[in-house]
Amino acid sequence: VVQGNVPIRRYRRCPMDTVAGVSRMGEFLFENSVDISEGGMKLDVNGNYRVGEQIDVFFFVPSGRFVRATCEVLYLLEVNERRQIGVKFMQPSDKCTGAIREYVAQV
Known about the structure:
Layout: E1 2-3, E2 6-7, E3 14-15, E4 19-24, E5 27-36, E6 40-45, E7 54-60, E8 66-79, E9 82-89, H1 94-106
Antiparallel strand pairs: 1-2, 3-5, 4-5, 4-7, 5-6, 6-9, 7-8, 8-9
């Protein structure tokens, strides 16, 4: 969605610093979350990802609820010598959406 020339996010992003497990192409990696919204999340990564790649992400929101989500990698960034990816949750379960919505509402 765009307002004027400025893109408007569909969901509010909140900072979230936690370890996230990522399963992709037969390997399992530990990455670190940067922020989250009901639509997706940003991760600091060590692995090499491609835009369009499908991955499974596993993490606990700070309330202690466990989340597993299938995601699509939307973008790759280099920020202060750190690599980051932005992922979109693909058809998240009600349990996943509820845990994230609860966390975002508290922040």
